[in-house]
């Protein structure tokens, strides 16, 4: 008797016969996550720069993103339904709102933690505002920014599953489809893949962070020795 | 703006508030599972977090439980419960899932709150001859309180949001108004349900911020970028 017929939790036959379906769902999941975090980043960095340059805006910007963050995802997606209909754009827009909160806060915290001496030294060497930002402030804020990107990515991967309410939830779609027939192997496989995706994404971003900020490791190594 | 006025119309219709599928009944379910889950989570996580923080042990567990919690989708956990025998146990699968997602912020913040109490203050208290219990009650607990409240707020918002997702696996709560609207292509009802859920979450947040200020020693809990309120899994 096959494990599909007996509805086992773990089923090799399921993996073999539905590999295409699993791949498609995983790709949709990754696509939605990557697009959401990238758009979040493109919006968050300028917002953080504005909030820093004009402290008057900092309060409202942080307040608004916190309010958005408090709205549960199912409600967020539902509120966007009249604007976007049943589309991937709806899910991406909702997820961008959430990643914004984390990214704005971390970028702002990173920029504010840049030592004043570093800024002064760069100005003394004749750096203009743009070069100061690009060559001194952003690199020094990078560890905080990368920490934000990692957190935003991991929670976006988890939240994408809720997109199955409009049929665009990546692996969440497989979970939803499996519920009416209590299809254990499909629910378990899709759930495990979600967690694996989050772990792999976190490790890849950690690796990227190390590549981009080699000086942080030298300092740690020097301090230890 | 047509949908907004239609959603308002849905909310203004008395019939939508009464009966088994009505707003009052769904709100009651929502508050019941949320309240029970939050109470259980507090009873488990707060003593553990405070004790580990007091003893200065188990930090890796207390911190990492939050990171792991963030990577696990609420929808997946609820779905796993609903394809297991637990599905026949009424509200139990929802409550267990809610507890699982409420424990990490409570545990992490209680632990961090205790650990971040100024060591000089702790040493001074010991020097004055305070016992471990006195130190815990009179020094560490009051100083850790703002972060413990941050954890409670974060857990409460998490629980209210998680209870919404329960509707996606056929469990009760306010989310059912949304899913029922999706099933019948009734967009005004979807928006009306979403407004109710969003208002409930924001109310819970606002009330707990207020409670924290009333209890607190006059300074708001610091916003933590790396842990605490910023953990979204639902």
Structure description:
The complex is a heterodimer of chains A (225) and B (234). With 225 residues, chain A is mostly helical. Chain A has one domain (19-213): MetI-like fold, CATH 1.10.3720.10. Chain A is 81% helix and 0% strand. Chain A has helices spanning 12-17, 19-53, 55-70, 73-84, 88-112, 116-124, 129-160, 171-178, 184-212, 214-224. The longest helix of chain A has 35 residues, at 19-53. The model of chain A has no long low-confidence stretch (mean pLDDT 91). By secondary structure, chain B is mainly α. Chain B has a domain at 27-174: MetI-like (MetI-like fold, Orthogonal Bundle). Residues 223-229 of chain B have low confidence and may be disordered. Chains A and B meet through α3, α4, α5, α7 and α8 of A and α3, α4, α7, α8 and α9 of B.
Task: Tell me the layout of helices and strands.
The complex is a heterodimer of chains A (225) and B (234).
Chain A: H1 12-17, H2 19-53, H3 55-70, H4 73-84, H5 88-112, H6 116-124, H7 129-160, H8 171-178, H9 184-212, H10 214-224
Helix pairs in contact in A: 2-3, 2-5, 2-7, 2-8, 3-5, 4-5, 5-7, 6-7, 7-9, 8-9
Chain B: H1 2-12, H2 23-55, H3 59-71, H4 74-82, H5 92-115, H6 119-127, H7 132-165, H8 175-183, H9 187-215
Helix pairs in contact in B: 1-9, 2-5, 2-7, 3-5, 4-5, 5-7, 6-7, 7-9, 8-9
Family (chain A): Belongs to the binding-protein-dependent transport system permease family.
Domain ABC transmembrane type-1 (chain A): 26-205
Keywords (chain A): Membrane, Transmembrane, Transmembrane helix, Transport
